[in-house]
Amino acid sequence: MVFSIESAHYFEYFFRRDVTKLYLAFAIRNFALGMVLLFEPVYLYLYFGKSIPMALVFFAVMFGGFGLLSPFGGKIMTKIGTTKTILISLFFYFAYYLALFFFPVSFWFVPLSIVFAIIAMTLFWPSFHVDFARFSSQKTRGSQVGSLNVMSIIPTAISPALGGWILASFGYPVLFVVVLVVLIASALPLFYCTETHEVYSDSYQDAWRRAFKKENWGLNIGFAASGLEGMVYMFFWPLFLFFVTANFDFMGGIVSGAFGISILFMLYIGRISIPKDRSWILQLGSLWTGISWVLKYFIVTPFDAFLAHTLYHISSTAASIPFQTLFYEKAAAKGKDADEFLVYREIVMNMARFVFLLVLAGVFFLFPLLPIRATFFAAAVFSLGFMFLGKTPRFSFF
Fold it and tell me: Which of 10, 51, 130, 220 has the fewest other C-beta atoms within 10 Å?
């Protein structure tokens, strides 16, 4: 049975926040983006003439802009409320994919798409994280984060396979049209949500100072590691799958299958992620996530890719649930400064992505024959950095 008794606390959060509608919007949004995110790096790689450096620069500018503008997302959230901010972000996500659709028409849609993506992320992510940190229950936050992952991953588990089938059968234009239609549908429930307001008080300078405070260096490592491992997963893993399978159907099926197998494991990790166990689970999950990245280096066939990716999802679940739980706990513990803490996290994570992607763009420009699977070793190292969000790693599980 997918839904555990612990999930009742999660639904209590949603009903208390009038977010049956908010969650419906989020689930539909995940379904829309899940159909295209796996194939987006391949689209950019092919558009830029099979140039990995150009595609990396595209994403570097996007995430760098998000990192720079994150404090303004907090200010906007204060002015108009979290729900309206999320609602507006969906229209900018729509504009981003519409711009991708028109890439073949004019190169000017490339910088325009980056601008739309930066605005969309700047509006969406601070508001979403603030909302969950404020209204999730302290005693059951582990199970709620587990449920949040499951509930958000169910549509995401289905959508890569569907997106792969649409892409293989009809091509990128039809896929973008379907994504745009579903994104419009995701905005509709938000028109009926009750608004809430948060107060983000940091100046732009104060937001950046948090990243350089000595007491935050451990958090900086944890946040940066999460962002960098995620970039290898988001950019290099889809390209690698494309090179291995050369078939969009297989790509979507591999990712959807691995997602589906990991769903029940997510709920289990959420239930056992109680305070005394979180650091231990985080350490173990981080180590196994790193090992799973190393194993991905040796993939030869699509079936190898499925097995390795399934192991990765199970391992990363054991790391991500306690990681996110600790993250939201630290944010909630800040009290009135929770908003500022969450924006600081976006700055650190996305500026790390910006630097990392630019460095890799230079590396692949100088060494064009470098196999992209070599980046999996970097992801393995970054996985170990997850541990720094909890207690200092001691590897007590040996």
Answer: 51
